[in-house]
Amino acid sequence: MSDSETIEHKLILRGLTLDDYDDIKQIMDRVYPGMGGAWKPDEYRALIEHFPEGQICIEDNGHVVAAAHAILVNAEEFESRHSYEDVIDGGKMTAHDPDGNALYGIDVFVDPGYRGLRLGRRLYDARKELCEKLNLKGIIFGGRIPGYGEHADKMTPSDYIQKVKANEIYDPVLSFQLSNDFHIKKVLKNYIAEDTESASYGVLMEWSNIFYEKRQKLFGGRKSYPRIGVVQWQMRPFNTMEDFMHQVEFFVDAMSGYNTDLILFPELLNAPLLKNFDQENPTEAMRSLAEYTEEIRAAFVSMAISYNTNIVAGSVPVIEEDLLYNVSYLCRRDGTWDEQRKLHITPDEAQYWGFRGGEEIKIFDTDIGKIGILICYDVEFPELARYLVDKGMVLLFVPYWTDTKNAYLRVRRCAQARAIENECYVAISGSVGNLPKVENMDIQYSQSAVFTPSDFAFPHDAIAAEATPNTEMTLMVDLDLDLLKELRQQGSVQNLLSRRKELYEVVWKPANNKKKD
């Protein structure tokens, strides 16, 4: 477990400033103890002054924990053999060309206490977005091969590289770069003379910008085309918590590989663990299941960071002041998290498990826009979605659990109505399969889907994607948020603009007579 997993995170991707030097020095001294350590203050200043846009970092709770440095060069000048010193020129960075057509990656490093959270991948992605925004041909750099030193007496650098590419050998730097879509152009002899781990060799790496000459978004901005992932979850027996989380991480890993911006899981996805408790007393079994919740939430937060995606973690039972609630956690990729409690409890849920309804509805800020979460039965109450869209919601996520097709159709039809009447996108995620040894959770019916408004700019049936009924699978959908803006102003009908608020409106009444927001 890394040191970072023991604290609450607040990750921010931003540009470096001169004030960050102390943090940078501390990290570099730990990462490069045998290669000269950190940049000197004047060298660091040269990077910031020459090319501030290329100096990127990740901050956690006010301190830099990872960073990447780059300059602009003409790619053609560095396609031949060169050394690291040729690029940095003793820290003066004279190779920087303001009119250059490519990024040259100077350095990427992560605080050792934060390794395992894939922050390096996040920095590489930020570089790619910067490259696209500046309309550059691509990224080049000389990469280290620190594993080669142990094999230098047995094979050539080319042989070593081929074995790394074939996954026969793992190199902590080269394997990572290859997994991030960088391609090897040539071997660089005497790239960094003091790099004994790499036997002084380097590898010229390249990433090509396929959007060259097209204007693209800079990292950190809100995406106009977020990619949504939906998991249709198979209810299968799990003997242990570890087995359950292994299956969860399988889906997060698989879908993050397609650069999903948010992944949605279904309601009560950890219900298979109920089999480990007394089925003669469903209420106590559900309360016992709540013992896993803190561990599950922490694991989802860690995965959101590690896989660089936001996650709506279905829902799980939570006990507070001896009352049982059905709670969905939003786990953001910056390390923060929040929760939405199910407000409306079905008669069956109250009778069998003793769930209580929550008393607050939230609108959540994310890096893909304002979102809402309504758990299953809640989506059948139109006032909730209307209240959320009045607060700025553009994406509604509905984790659900239904046992029969007619129960499922209630959720589906209402979710589709919420998308149309509120001119927003709605994603629903449910579970399939059966749990023979779990009381009141024995059968499932689901066809997960992503719904759109109904107008000419959207699919003719107002369905962006839908799963095969009763089959474990995933959906991945790119959603155009700009279309919502156009629809709300220029649609064939304009539900939001046409509402007669002078006659009626949705007003939230906070519990305990608290002041209305």
Description:
There is one protein chain. The chain is an alpha/beta fold and 517 residues long. It contains 14 helices and 22 strands. Strands 8, 9, 10, 11, 12, 13, 14, 19 and 22 form a nine-stranded mixed beta sheet that branches. A seven-stranded mixed beta sheet has the order 1-2-3-4-5-7-6. A six-stranded mixed beta sheet has the order 15-16-17-18-20-21, covered by helices on one side. Strand 15 (364-366) and strand 16 form a beta hairpin. Helix 11 packs parallel to helix 12 (405-422). It starts with 10 loop residues before the first strand and ends in a 19-residue tail after the last helix.
* Morphology: globular
Strand content: 15-25%
pLDDT < 50 runs, ≥5 residues: 1-5, 214-218, 513-517
DSSP summary: helix tally = 14
How many extended strands? 22
Average pLDDT works out at 91
Helix content: 25-40%
Query: Largest beta sheet, briefly?
Result: 9 strands, mixed
The radius of gyration over CA amounts to 26 Å
Derived from helix and strand composition plus strand pairing, the structural class reads: alpha/beta
* Terminal CA distance: 41 Å
Question: Brief description of this entry?
Answer:
With 517 residues, the protein is an alpha/beta fold. The chain has helices at 21-31, 41-50, 84-88, 119-133, 157-165, 174-179, 241-256, 282-289, 293-306, 347-353, 382-390, 405-422, 481-490, 495-498, and strands at residues 11-15, 56-60, 63-73, 102-110, 138-144, 183-188, 202-208, 227-235, 262-264, 310-312, 316-320, 323-331, 337-341, 355-356, 364-366, 369-373, 395-399, 425-429, 431-433, 449-451, 463-466, 473-478.
